[in-house]
Specification:
With 370 residues, the protein is of the alpha/beta class. The protein folds into three domains: 6-82, Arc Repressor Mutant, subunit A; 91-191 and 335-363, Rossmann fold (3-Layer(aba) Sandwich); 193-332, Rossmann fold. Helices cover 45% and strands 16% of the residues. It is built from 13 helices and 14 strands. The strands form three sheets. It has a six-stranded parallel beta sheet with strand order 4-3-5-6-7-13, with helices on both faces. The chain has a six-stranded mixed beta sheet with strand order 9-8-10-11-12-14, with helices on both faces. The chain has a two-stranded antiparallel sheet with strand order 1-2.
């Protein structure tokens, strides 16, 4: 017959004492030192016995206070609650956005919310406001919470968030929206920005505008902006026109996310645009990379009394919900569909789908009267 180890004897004696109510629920057990003296063993032996009881959730060890007998009913309720929380968390996804507003993001969030309901999911929203550090912090918080998947609108930045790459390598359910990371194996849902930019440029050409100024942020070369820029350039090349980048406005800063804006002000940007317009009267149209920049250009044209003779086009803008008679020609992305599709894609990956895919949602060219 196998001889009982000393730590097993201590373990069995304490277990018997608990069952016989010698150590009732909530009572404090003898310490490691007390047990080592009682059984004439080392503290390593008494510690091992107590650790075995703790691993089986029979006792609770509290550093500096001692070991206490756990109430079996309370223990079962606690485990039941933990299980419920784990199940609940497994149906929660994280959504990280740069920012959102009426011009872009509201409909996207609406699509996410509606599809989450359809998929029986909850979501936690985090906004980064252009800060890569905030994006990393948001991801870590969501992962610590225990979300089952993440949808990310990456911040405008020329370098990638290393945590996104790590999650991609680990096959965590993650989907990018609006801004794709080229060459990185992560599923993406968004717009064909290249083709949309070509079509928007075509609209200007068909309306007699071939002297077009491209207007963008300062020093931001994200894939989304580059796609729009390349669509603009390639359309000109297809019509045997070489674009002159010195005739572009690409040094605006006030509409950058707050993390990259620095001390830039809207007044400074408006002055830059005004000087450009006055020094380049041959330009009859302005292709703005996004709504907020397009509005700056239009305000400047209004100030100079040139808003009727020169066109401003851009991506996104105030939806027809707010303005039933849009005055600007623009690209309208399928925001609602992007949001809803991103949730479906995350849910597919939560259910085991591994393939990386890109889904491009149809867009429209909305024709305005200005």
């Amino acid at each position: 017959m196998k001889k009982e180890a000393l730590y097993e004897k201590i373990y069995n004696d304490i277990m018997e004492g608990i069952q016989n109510n010698k150590f009732p629920p909530g009572s404090r057990l003898p310490s490691e030192k007390e047990l080592s003296l009682q059984y004439n063993v080392s503290r390593i032996t008494s510690k091992k016995a107590l650790e075995m009881l703790a691993e089986q959730n029979v006792i609770l060890r509290m550093p500096g206070k001692g070991s206490f007998v756990i109430d079996e009913q309370e223990n079962n309720e606690m485990h039941s609650e933990q299980t419920k929380n784990q199940k609940k968390q497994s149906r929660v996804i994280g959504v990280i956005m740069d920012a959102f507003g009426a011009s872009y993001g509201y409909q996207l969030l609406l699509g996410i919310e509606r599809e989450c309901k359809a998929q029986n999911l909850d979501f936690i929203l985090k906004c980064t406001y252009g800060s890569k550090e905030a994006e990393i912090a948001a991801m870590n918080e969501l992962l610590e919470f225990g979300v089952a998947g993440i949808i990310v609108m990456c911040v405008h930045d020329e370098t990638y968030n290393a945590l996104v790459l790590k999650l991609a390598v680990e096959k965590f359910p993650i989907v990018l929206i609006d801004r794709q990371l080229k060459g990185i194996p992560i599923s993406y849902v968004g717009t064909n920005n290249y083709m949309a930019a070509k079509e928007l440029t075509d609209w200007l050409f068909r309306h007699g505008h071939t002297k077009i100024c491209f207007v963008s942020h300062a020093s931001v070369q994200t894939p989304t902006i580059l796609e729009r820029q390349n669509g603009f350039i390639d359309y000109h090349l297809e019509h045997n026109i070489i674009t002159n980048e010195s005739m572009w406005i690409t040094n605006l800063r006030s509409m950058l996310p707050s993390a990259d804006r620095g001390e830039a002000s809207m007044e400074t940007d408006l002055k830059l645009i005004e000087d450009f317009i006055l020094n380049n009267p041959q330009m009859t149209a302005f292709f703005a990379i996004e709504y907020s920049i397009g509005i700056l250009v239009y305000k400047t044209l209004q100030k100079l009394g040139q808003e009727k003779e020169k066109k401003v086009v851009f991506f996104d803008g105030i939806d027809e919900i707010y303005d039933s008679n849009p005055i600007f020609t623009r690209v309208k992305q399928g925001e609602y569909q992007i949001g809803a599709t991103s949730v479906r894609m995350v849910a597919e990956r939560m259910n085991g789908k591994k393939e990386v895919e890109t889904r491009l949602i149809p867009y429209e060219i909305i024709e305005g009267d200005k």
